[in-house]
Amino acid sequence: MHNAVRKFFALYHHLALPGIGNLTLQTSPAQLDFVNRNIIPSLACINFSNDGIMPDKSFYSFLSQELQIDEQQAEHQFAGFTSSLRADLDEQRTIHLRGIGQLTKQSSHVINFQPEEKNSNGYFPPLVAERVIRKNAAHFIKVGEQEKTSTEMQTALRQEEKKVYIEPRRERWWIPAAILAFIGIIGIFIYYLTHNN
Q: I need a surface site. Which of 18, 37, 109, 141 has the fewest CB within 10 A?
């Protein structure tokens, strides 16, 4: 019976144990860890409530198929299973449901549930999520409030570079050369004036 109950819980994510409580499996969605550049996988957690919900018809049809008996016998065997669980809780105050967790009786009407400890990573470890930008491949870039492709931004940047460097730098090497030539001509003129007299 333990295996059939555990299989039903794994497939349908809920299990009603009359006189004990109700187990539901809830999955939290995957999350992005921007700081560490990881994608944290979805995590499953089992919640327990002391509700007196009775199992539905689909549960008993599942049990009858698993145990290969008719539904009335499945209903009767499940009632015996839950009554033995309640008796074990009353005597030992703790019972272990393999693959699900541990039930502990605190008082006459309060039962606590502790899920089985799983590997800290669960079934799937966190994934490294780094942006891959390939050379010469177009990708979207957010510029202010607008989204542009990388090719649009490259052409815009090239046009700005052309605008900045359109006016060539004037070369003024001739100014010092002209000053030196003027000084040289004056020196030659003074030399001829002083030596011709």
A: 109
